[in-house]
Amino acid sequence: MDLMILNPEVQVFINANIGTHVATLALQKNPFPNVDWITILNQIDAKTKAKDKLPHWFLSQNIIYPSKLSVEQTSSEKTASYKASIVTGDHLIDLTGGFGVDDFYFAQKIKEVVHCEINPDLSQLVKHNFEQLRVPNITCYTGDSLATLTALKTNWDWIYIDPSRRNDTKGKVFMLKDCLPNVPKNLTLYFKNTNAILIKTAPILDITAGLTELQHVKQIHIIAVENEVKELLWELHAAYSGPIRIKTVNILKDKNETFDFIWNEVASFSNFSLPQTYLYEPNSAIMKSGGFDEVGSFYKVNKLHKHSHLYTSMDLIPFPGRVFEIQNTFSYNKTAMKFFLENSKANITTRNFPDSVESIRKKWKIKDGGNIYSFFTTDENNHKIVLICTKIS
């Protein structure tokens, strides 16, 4: 960790160049010969990335950033705050500390937080940042987290783990056993030190596959931010063997959309109908959950088709996702397309439809944008249809 980067003049230069392409800056002469130029450029790049994702860090003085990639891979403050709402108690250990964003928020709920990081440079950097952020109840340990867990001999209220995929797993099916640390292999050891484990995984992990590798799963949280799924949180409790609750949350600027259901519960089923007055598209967290029968049953809306995952109703209802008013419905054919959409401007969504958005745009010369929303899908009679809509929310 190069503390020369905290020179006030260097910091002024970094802040003045937030948002500037570092490839352009790299062509310039280093105005600070005593400070490594690549380090300065990396700070500009990483801090630019942190502006929206980590506003508390961005607005604080004397923060040192790791690589831009590390900032991209860390939790956002929004998702970290949600994680902190899950945990309770006095003692939590994070076995995969990283940049420490999650631990900053855990420390607002937990009396003592331990941050474990195998990379000594990153561990030192995070310790420095916690001091600048005035967080006194986080202790940083460098080295193998299993060794730290064993050495501390503490009965933890929570163990938190964010396993990373090994480089040799690229292109392969994502399994937890392919990550570091290998959580399925170490699970018995973890439960000797705690009764509660929270695991963060990338959204690409298949829920069914994860459940085949893990034991004692009580809840799975699917977290989206502005309708983009960011992470899955697996909540494990010692000896738990009951029903698994799926909690979906879509964190928006002014509210959170939430929907919960029991995994593989047979009580829910879908009703079907042709398009009515309103159209509903579930948010991305619900889409990831696979709770398509459950959301339709709970909100009393009808599905257009078993595989379309679009819903309709006569009366307008609040719904966790996008809501539209249907203006026109027609069969997908040359005559109708020429009349309604050819050479027009519209937003296009496909659900359970054979053609891609790109091919539809090219074939019918439809420009992107505007106030018209068109859904290309399949109805309950297996007919290919197009819905012309206006957006409500």
Automatic annotation (TrEMBL):
Q: Which GO terms describe its molecular function?
A: methyltransferase activity
Q: Which residues lie in coiled coils?
A: none
Enumerate the Gene Ontology biological process terms.
methylation
Entries under InterPro entries matching the protein: PG_1098_Fer, SAM-dependent_MTases_sf, Thump-like
Give every THUMP-like domain span.
Answer: 321-391
Keyword terms, alphabetized: Methyltransferase, Transferase
- Where do the PG-1098 ferredoxin-like domain residues begin and end? 278-320
A Pfam match is: PG_1098_Fer
Its name, as the record gives it, is Class I SAM-dependent methyltransferase
- State the species of origin: Flavobacterium bomense
